[in-house]
Design goal:
Blueprint lengths: L9 E2 L5 E2 L3 E5 L8 H11 L3 E5 L5 E2 L2 E4 L11 E4 L3 H5 L2 H7 L3 E4 L6 H9 L3 E4 L2 H5 L1
Parallel strand pairs: 3-4, 3-7, 4-6, 7-8, 8-9
Antiparallel strand pairs: 1-2, 5-6
Amino acid sequence: MPVLKGRELLDFGVGMYYVFYDCCYFGSSHKEHRFSFKAMKALEEHGSEIVLVHPILKDVEGRRVLSSMLDIQGEVDAVTVYVNPAISMTLTDEFLKLAPKRVIFNPGTENPILESQFEAAGINVVNYCTLILLS
């Protein structure tokens, strides 16, 4: 697996290329032991411009947190998901209205129903760990 540095293109070995430019980070956490927190830090270290989304949190270490993906202005390259399928199912319309180029379902967040809907809408779906993609 190639290493992602800054805004380089990343080849997943299946003929698809991804770049983390504007990344919506859904399921933000302020708890340092959580993988979602670690991914936030890793994305920033790799030069990604991230937008944090969580329905309750307003701030994570001084970073503004939006309560909804509908609050995001502009295009989003990737959404990396850190919520379980029961939660992500309730947000189908938000994902589709945001229309990111790709959605990354991290381990434990996979959602075959959403994956089918995203692919039908032309959104690339990746089932993989964001931290491993960045390593």
